[in-house]
């Protein structure tokens, strides 16, 4: 786990003064709080997560907070360890010699929160519902002949052609993992959300205390039988050391910060970077990066409408953009962002930075202007969508607007709330009729580290991701990746995809940054996983 | 006593100018308010002359800098000059205040006159107005801004909607009592056409209270814009307004309170001045107040 | 008089019906698709489309409207699109923090504002009046979130007298409730005190101009006695009015205060619902707050007829 415990705060003279004041007060006395005494005997972890939980169906929603909820309540057949290797979790497996038949055997002692045993029938129903919704799983299902429960503990998965990545897809952490639910729940149509929240995971969802968007409470599942291996990544033994975990939502990041420093809460999953200098002055708080892969910010252009239906215009725009200005504005502190041109992440097995030289150099406005002229830009307005209610993420479009304007684009920066943005980006209309030209978003390192799971790559026109790129060549490369044998071949294909994505400007990587968490020093042994999990965690009284 | 006060305080002159009876006293506070408001309006309107920087020019390397010779009030999270943004921000905030007041008064006046004069329309109009008044203004504005997207015009529209019913009620009540006046009854019996009656006889009656009302609407619109920005539904990030400078700065309140302090101070002083002037105008125009003053 | 009251109560029905229509139309004109937010950031257009179909959002608008009205007539506000919980239950769960804090701030405001307004009326036109009026105008010239931040900074972060955030129900202990509620209530109070103090002053001045007060004066009754005994009693109704109508202002104020202080009330519920386009929740909330407003005004109107001998219908 990378840990930042800096004693000096560079660059923030005002902050230093403010923070000193806060630190002094803190040293003066510790305030006894009723919040902690209410459950004095119980060990409770109170955490402020990156967003409020409203949707409880981790198969229907791809939202990260819902995925995190899934890992609390549900368990998975197989899981990825800290090294990225697939390990048994609920089940072990055997593969036939022709690699067409996978046999999964459930381990002993698995039961749901309602007391029923986990059976092979539950697994089959859950896998089918998951296969109907998840993108990567869809590829797997195309190669699947049947998934059958042959007895209470055995599931036989028959393929019609070899699928080398079967276990990787089944063990993927994000954004829709293959959570196992009771058969009656998994029988819910994949287009409707579930209404019963019973899993076999290490925590029980306390429905009576659920306040959508405000608070969610989990209690330890006493009958959970963890594996014997130590926890590693999302694999290994899920040993729960606390009685209760409460996730609370705080709309105001400063309120959350003050609450942590006051001892009212134990963890802020994603702390505003600019507030870290204040948090770091508190002797009771540790600021750290839990997930070293972090997130990648990117800009997506609309391939359907001018000017970006023309690859020359897309290239001119990319030439104008630079990662440094985007990240410096959004994150500020260089300890927590890094420039990275690799669409599969820097330092990952498939990471490769080909084609991103100008982005890492801060862009070249003069060159962009020249490319724009050569492409015959007719001053068509470029509509950039900006969300104003998502904190620092909303800053990138402002920087892009400024960069593009400097290169000679006629920019129309339109502000809206995030919900309007996600709805409007689905509109295929021209920008003047409720459509758009550019929006920005971000991808989590763990869900963008291979061509199989990367959410933005599908370039099949109207059925692809928003922006509707059509690129048969790229599609061929993705199909080849699924059949690739061994890391070397995968690397070669990933390299080709990287080059193709930046050459055709499928999207523009704008730099990588970390979620920085701030935790009370009482909270220890949190696993360094991309998905925040609460097994293994301990809390001092 | 009346003579003395008229001779020594400037208020006497103004009072005479406004056609008020001699002896109407204007304290020193309204004059301070007027001076403050004029000052704010002037520096805002002539912001280009006083601003050291382009208010929307980004400078990521100069984020959150403290006050310096180059940036007198420091910079914000985008490295933009706070002083320039506060100066330019006034243009948008004042525009929203004035435009909302103007539109609400004109629309409210028209609707109110109709409601006050035509019995048939009255019932329907007033039920609709009651309905609009019942919806909490911030919620109504939030919903309306969400429809039209974040822009100056949609914020103006959104705030105007919840202010119109108040104007309509005011105008209607004045019309209802004025309609019983002999000169209006006479005009009706003489067969004067309705629009002429409305324009010639009733408009003048409603003008003074409307001016007072307009000042309150203007002040409250400037405040509501700030609240909408706080909720992420303001005019957007690039163009500054006092509200969105504060909304952008609120994350940094503990770190750099000046981001909220300066626009907050100017906004509060501006709203305060407008409210004080509105109060003064009301006191001067209210005949009962005048009676007591005398 | 009874006839008037019945007429007033009946008049509520068309108003609420119009509110329902306005709310429904405004929301359905709003761009935004709850299916898109439920599906999440990396969902494909196809996934969103199928979700939208299953949520009934593809039905014609008028069908959705009449479905909703039908539910309303049964007292059912519908089901949240996001969490699947009933809107009635959501509101029942979230309204108490809001009401408790609103109530506390009304009590605090009246306790502060009525004496202030009385003082201003008594010292009318003199220094005390100017000071009180200046403070009260300043009170509603500062945005609520600024007031909230300053209070947090001073009383919670620096002095550490009170918690920064959160809510405890009075049933969990009155002391704990007050410790958590005092800062949010003070934030709301700033604007409310201003309004109430001004109204108290204005209605007292009106009453003091009446003949019977002049008579009392003429009979040699002391200023202060006249003010407190006759003035305040007769000014009670207009003061009550402003307390009532100001309730709408409070409901707007809680939207801000609840997000600053992290209070799980209906203000935050509404904003969250707007941001997620959770239509049934927004509709229910606006209908509810409008209903409260209309009801409070109805009660005040009736109180007028009962308490003020000069008003007869």
TrEMBL record, chain A:
SUPFAM superfamilies: Periplasmic binding protein-like II (SSF53850). It holds the Pfam family SBP_bac_5. Its main location: periplasm. InterPro entries: SBP_5, SBP_5_CS, SBP_5_dom. CDD domains: PBP2_NikA_DppA_OppA_like_16. The keyword Signal applies. It is found in: Periplasm. GO terms for molecular function: peptide transmembrane transporter activity. Residues 1-40 form the signal peptide. Keywords: Signal. GO terms for biological process: peptide transport. Residues 87-427 form the Solute-binding protein family domain. PROSITE patterns: SBP_BACTERIAL_5. Belongs to the bacterial solute-binding protein 5 family. This is ABC transporter substrate-binding protein.
TrEMBL record, chain B:
Residues 90-278 form the ABC transmembrane type-1 domain. The chain crosses the membrane at residues 28-50, 94-118, 138-162, 210-235, 260-281. GO terms for biological process: transmembrane transport. It comes from the Bacteria. It is found in: Cell membrane. Keywords: Cell membrane, Membrane, Transmembrane, Transmembrane helix, Transport. Its main location: membrane. It is a multi-pass membrane protein. Pfam families: BPD_transp_1, OppC_N. CDD domains: TM_PBP2 (cd06261). This is ABC transporter permease.
TrEMBL record, chain C:
GO terms for cellular component: plasma membrane. Keywords: Cell membrane, Membrane, Transmembrane, Transmembrane helix, Transport. It is a multi-pass membrane protein. InterPro entries: BPD_transp_1_N, MetI-like, MetI-like_sf. Its main location: membrane. It is found in: Cell membrane. The chain crosses the membrane at residues 9-27, 101-122, 134-157, 177-195, 237-261, 281-307. One of its GO terms (biological process) is transmembrane transport. Residues 95-304 form the ABC transmembrane type-1 domain. The keyword Transport applies. It comes from the Bacteria. Belongs to the binding-protein-dependent transport system permease family. This is ABC transporter permease. It comes from Neoaquamicrobium microcysteis.
